[in-house]
Amino acid sequence: MTKAERLDSLRPEVLGCRACGLRDGATQVVFGEGHPEARIVFVGEGPGADEDKQGRPFVGRAGQLLDRMIAAMGMSRFQDVYILNVVKCRPPGNRTPTPEEWDACHPHLERQLEILDPVIVVLLGSTALKALLGPTLRITQMRGQWIERRGRWWMPTYHPAALLRNPSLKRETWDDLKRVVDKYRELVNPGHDSPYYPIPSKN
Ligand code: URA
After folding, report:
1. Distance between CA atoms of residues 43 and 182, nearest Å
2. Which of 48, 111, 173, 189 is most exposed by smallest CB count within 10 Å?
């Protein structure tokens, strides 16, 4: 089976999930989207109001910023990356999901990562970092550093919603995303071009 077919066969299970209470307050489950053969996966926290309405990840203001960040890397949502969340249902009032809720949703995220089998995972913010790499880790300490674990390269960085609240974090976040482009050139495609981070010339 192709990755697209495997994701399609996982979808009904995720959409029918009742493993925690979040589904009760949500309009719909947000599975994730992107290119099934992507070598880079971005992981956010959970759907907000816009995502809950549309059934798609990162479509509100933070999502528009994420799309611009991905474009600056020379990539696009449906051609080069796949976008997931730690929890697939909107927490009421956009509160941060609890560790019990991440745990309940974790098998879905793990299956998605197993199917997508990305080389690089970009962890957007504290919840993604804690849920995937360890609950005691802090985003301010870990961001910008590669962690090689379970056969993948993990890069924690700030969540785009944090950048909207505090634009002074944008510079560090772009530094982190340039590290991601470097790793992509090293491990996936040496010729990958990016409008804001061109391949260094040899002379
Ligand atoms: N914030 C997230 O973490 N995920 C989304 O899908 C949208 C906003």
Report:
1. 19
2. 189
